[in-house]
DNA sequence: GGCCCTCTTTAGGGCCTT
């Protein structure tokens, strides 16, 4: 009931949660089984996959766009207030303000890698935007996938940018699709997004969010949007740019791998294109599969990713400020 | 815009993200 109040406050009448176990999830499931992906994920998840990982329920604002026809929304009548029964119990929505998160410093964690792996939530995410400029462009779509799987392991939504979309040819997202009532604006979405991520966190654990080219695009863009809406990225969100391990892979593979782009990595690992490239959820599902292959090849674990590749939003912000001041 | 590589660091160019 408190959730309902929250969304009422946000004025998101079309925010909905529904079962997305349509052909998309089936494809991913079948694809993963065919490609022996399930066991490979154990590199990222030394404790092994949770048996719930292929349970097929996802979270969406209901504004994921018409182009995602393969993900048939089979239960649109489920309202957002049902989220309390479908996600973890800590979706406290009595206040629209984001609580100060308890920081979990990597260096304070136990040296036992298994414990780190068990308490770390790994989420792959991707954004689509109206362009490359963090100052002038806006996010128009965001998608996340918790690699531990289970109920509501994915989250996706279109975002109303309050501006004309001029790069529809890239992602297929039109002005008409996002500039209308029912599609949440970023300022309304951020609290929902933060609560979703929190709902995926393990008790006392930390979150590792992975995006391709995230260090120079997705994360700075996200920081910019949070700041524009007077929010801050939670301090216990750690990020990894999958481009970094991709560079290592390129060094190891030499000319076999010609580029570190997501599409090249997808082709390298013979992962079929599911959905339209440059739609957020399609790219997330590809990156999730690329990651499992890449971490296997590089023998990377979650502690390894945290130690060698992770960064925080504050580090990105501080670096940006230093560079501005030095100019 | 930022990272990385190299024909480099007193620099320039390619890549990657939408």
Automatic annotation (TrEMBL):
One of its GO terms (molecular function) is metal ion binding. This is Exonuclease domain-containing protein. Keywords: Exonuclease, Hydrolase, Magnesium, Metal-binding, Nuclease. InterPro entries: Ribonucl_H, RNaseH-like_sf, RNaseH_sf, TREX1/2. Coiled coil: none annotated. Gene3D superfamilies: Ribonuclease H-like superfamily/Ribonuclease H. The keyword Hydrolase applies. Belongs to the exonuclease superfamily. TREX family. Residues 121-300 form the Exonuclease domain. It comes from the Eukaryota. GO terms for biological process: DNA catabolic process. GO terms for cellular component: cytoplasm. Its cofactor is Mg(2+).
